[in-house]
């Protein structure tokens, strides 16, 4: 008798990781594979609070939770303290969780599918003799770079702290944009201890990647074939949004404010700038005001996702004087937008984004050009692809005071929206992305092989 295959999916407990992995889990369930999703207790409570009763009823996967060992979750950011805490308890608690599931469930867990950022938890699967699948939730170029670290150290291009020795550009292959010394995924200029932490973290990925049979990536092969070619066992199955018919609310840590969709319905086609900087980006009050003034000065209509904690150390009343009154009518502000539905809306003209990988691949899937403002990690890589490789966006630049000024924002918005070539390129990328997840497309075929592997 053939046993029903049962996959335990384990994300890093952060918004940009939980949401795409939940989509993947839903897709597995739609393909006849039983999927159980292991959230930290803190994250599970947030997701359930943001899900409607209908979503909960229709949820095709089982949600379970484990204790992540953290007393508090400051802004849901993941730095050394949080990762250390996770490392201490996660493996042990996941092992317990699997034992509990196996005791109470008719179908025991047969595969553990983990986010590579918590890749050490694959040890549990290894010890229990289960199938192991890793998932990389950023772009393939940043994984290709992480996998090249040992060679770069050996060649004395970077030192053991991740700093460049010769100050030269790092080039992995002809098709991959070069890295400047200050743009490496782990670079945190002026914060050597933090940089060392991120660097060791990237280096550790090398050991994890050696073991799993498959490394899934939320991209499609043709989008960055050069980087994909450098990663052993990679299986690009994205863009995940396009292969999913799931209600986009699932996996969100906050309720999505859908009033912006009816507002968008009333706007002319291709007229609204959508601004969202992901789940963790924070600004100084001064910088926040410059964004507000820049949007106002641009003269365009806009939809802005402003998380309640987006301004560091400020009260919720942080808009410039009378800003809200002045932009009423042409500006809509929500705390958390239904981003994928917004990007799919015909009124949206461009995406002012921090270039997190989910936002990048969601923007590509919907054919919108980008105005890029990367802050950390792989966001710089994504910006380079958007601006230099795919040519679907422009980037804002800091002035001599380290601020992105209102004038810079206004000018770049104008330049982007009058650049028809970028819009054409964006539409072409969207079509390629659709092709890749359609019957016979590369991601479609890869997803089929994944299902076959899991069912074997
Ligand atoms: N997102 C959303 N509503 C918002 C802002 C973001 O649903 O108002 C979602 C977005 O669709 C994406 C995720 O949050 O799936 C953010 O992930 P990304 O990798 O872009 O950035 P991160 O939050 O990890 O920095």
Offer a quick outline of the entry:
This protein is an alpha/beta fold. The protein has 19 helices and 13 strands.
Molecular structure report:
With 456 residues, this protein is of the alpha/beta class. It folds into 2 domains: 6-139 and 201-250 and 435-455, 3-Layer(aba) Sandwich (Rossmann fold), CATH 3.40.50.2000; 259-433, Rossmann fold, CATH 3.40.50.2000. It is 44% helix and 13% strand. It is built from 19 helices and 13 strands. The protein has helices at residues 15-30, 41-50, 53-58, 80-104, 122-128, 140-147, 149-154, 192-210, 225-228, 240-243, 259-265, 285-298, 323-327, 339-344, 357-365, 379-389, 406-417, 420-437, 442-455; strands at residues 6-10, 34-40, 62-66, 111-115, 131-136, 214-217, 234-236, 272-276, 301-305, 331-334, 348-353, 370-372, 393-395. The strands form 2 sheets. A 7-stranded parallel sheet has the order 3-2-1-4-5-6-7. It has a 6-stranded parallel sheet with strand order 10-9-8-11-12-13, sandwiched between helices. Helix 13 links the parallel strand 9 and strand 10. The two termini are 13 Å apart. 46% of the residues are buried. Uridine-5'-diphosphate (UDP) binds at residues 15-16, 19, 252, 276, 278-280, 305, 336-337, 339-340, 356-359, 362.
Task: Note the main attributes of this structure.
single chain; 456 residues; alpha/beta; Rossmann fold; 2 domains; seven-stranded parallel beta sheet; six-stranded parallel beta sheet; 19 helices; 13 strands; globular; binds uridine-5'-diphosphate; quercetin 7-O-glucosyltransferase activity
Distance between the termini: 13 Å
Q: Ligands bound here?
A: uridine-5'-diphosphate
The class by helix and strand makeup works out as alpha/beta
Please state the second-level CATH architecture of the largest domain.
3-Layer(aba) Sandwich
Helix content: 40-55%
How many structural domains can be distinguished in the coordinates?
Answer: 2
How much of the sequence lies in strands comes to: 5-15%
On the 0-100 scale, what is the average pLDDT?
92
Main pleated sheet: 7 strands, parallel
What's the CATH first level of the largest domain?
Answer: Alpha Beta
Fold-level CATH name of the largest domain? Rossmann fold
Q: CATH homologous superfamily of the largest domain - what is it? A: Glycogen Phosphorylase B
Number of extended strands: 13
Strands ordered across the widest β-sheet = 3-2-1-4-5-6-7
Determine the number of helices (DSSP H or I, runs of at least 4 residues): 19
User: Outline, from the CA principal axes?
Assistant: globular
Write down the Rg.
22 Å
């Amino acid at each position: 008798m053939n046993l029903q295959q049962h996959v335990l999916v384990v994300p890093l407990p952060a918004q940009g990781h939980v949401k795409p992995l939940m989509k993947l889990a839903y897709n597995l369930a739609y393909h006849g594979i039983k999927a159980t999703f292991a959230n930290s207790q803190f994250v599970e409570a947030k997701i359930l609070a943001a899900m409607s009763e209908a979503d909960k009823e229709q949820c095709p996967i089982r949600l379970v939770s484990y204790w992540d060992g953290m007393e508090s979750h400051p802004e849901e950011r993941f730095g050394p303290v949080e990762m250390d805490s996770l490392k201490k308890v996660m493996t042990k608690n996941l092992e317990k969780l699997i034992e509990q599931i196996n005791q109470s469930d008719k179908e025991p867990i047969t595969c553990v599918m983990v986010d590579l950022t918590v890749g050490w938890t694959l040890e549990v699967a290894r010890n229990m003799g289960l199938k192991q699948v890793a998932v990389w939730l950023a772009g393939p170029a940043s994984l290709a770079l992480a996998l090249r670290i040992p060679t770069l150290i050996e060649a004395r291009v970077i030192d053991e702290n991740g700093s460049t020795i010769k100050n030269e550009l790092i080039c992995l292959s002809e098709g991959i944009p070069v890295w400047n010394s200050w743009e490496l995924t782990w670079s945190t200029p002026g914060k050597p201890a933090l940089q060392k932490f991120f660097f060791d973290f990237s280096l550790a990925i090398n050991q994890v990647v050696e073991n799993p049979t498959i490394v899934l990536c939320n991209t499609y092969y043709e989008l960055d074939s050069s980087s994909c070619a450098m990663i052993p066992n990679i299986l690009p199955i994205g863009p995940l949004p396009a292969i999913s018919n799931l209600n986009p609310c699932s996996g969100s840590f906050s309720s999505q404010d859908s009033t912006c969709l009816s507002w968008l319905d009333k706007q002319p086609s291709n007229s609204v700038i959508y601004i969202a900087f992901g789940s963790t980006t924070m600004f100084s009050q001064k910088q926040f005001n410059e964004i507000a003034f820049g949007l106002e000065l641009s003269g365009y209509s806009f939809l802005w996702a402003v998380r309640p904690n987006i301004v560091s150390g400020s009260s919720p009343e942080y808009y410039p004087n009378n800003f809200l009154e002045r932009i009423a009518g042409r500006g809509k502000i929500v705390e958390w937008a239904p981003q994928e539905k917004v990007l799919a809306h015909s009124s949206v003209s461009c995406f002012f984004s921090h270039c997190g990988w989910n936002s990048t691949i969601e923007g590509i899937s919907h054919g919108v050009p980008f105005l890029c403002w990367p802050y950390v990690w792989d966001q710089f890589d994504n910006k380079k692809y958007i601006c230099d490789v795919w040519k679907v966006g422009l980037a804002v630049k800091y002035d001599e005071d380290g601020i992105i000024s209102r004038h810079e924002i206004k000018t770049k918005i104008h330049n982007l929206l009058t650049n028809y070539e970028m819009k054409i390129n964006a539409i072409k990328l969207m079509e390629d992305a659709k092709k890749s997840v359609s019957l016979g497309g590369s991601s479609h075929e890869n997803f089929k092989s994944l299902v076959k592997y899991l069912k074997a």
